[in-house]
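User: I need a structural model of PTS lactose transporter subunit IIC from Clavibacter michiganensis subsp. insidiosus for a docking pre-check later this week. Nothing fancy, just the predicted structure tokens so I can convert them on my end. Input:
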Amino acid sequence: TLAERVVAEGRATDADALFADAWERESKTDTGMGGGLAIPHCRSAAVTEATLVMARPEPAVDFGAPDGPADLVFFIAAPDGADQEHLVLLSRLARSLIKPEFVEALRTATDEDQVVSLVEGALVDEPASSTGAPAAAAPAASASAP
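Assistant: Understood. Predicted structure tokens for PTS lactose transporter subunit IIC:
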């Protein structure tokens, strides 16, 4: 799962607790954006540092978008109380995802380094304060999410 990836990156302590928090958040409002995109996100006591993890699940996963499942999934996990970091990551990512060329580059990236470079570039394209939350990527992740 993407929660396990956050733990593997050393940015959370408990994948089960993080998954439960993400699932609870998802049950309140779907995070599918349409166009094959989804941004599940949550704040959790299990998270030690705000993190963005991206996956290209095969098959695509249903996140409640009206046009179908997502083949690009971006999971934002932030520590409890890190509201500002959470919102900055979410807003910067959302602004990048409205650019068709950015989405296409993510879909056609051939390796993890390319995906990470694209996502990190999107997160720091504004010269204001940095989020301090580099991206992790799982280009060929399984369909289980978050």
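Before docking, keep this in mind: DSSP finds five helices and six strands in the chain.
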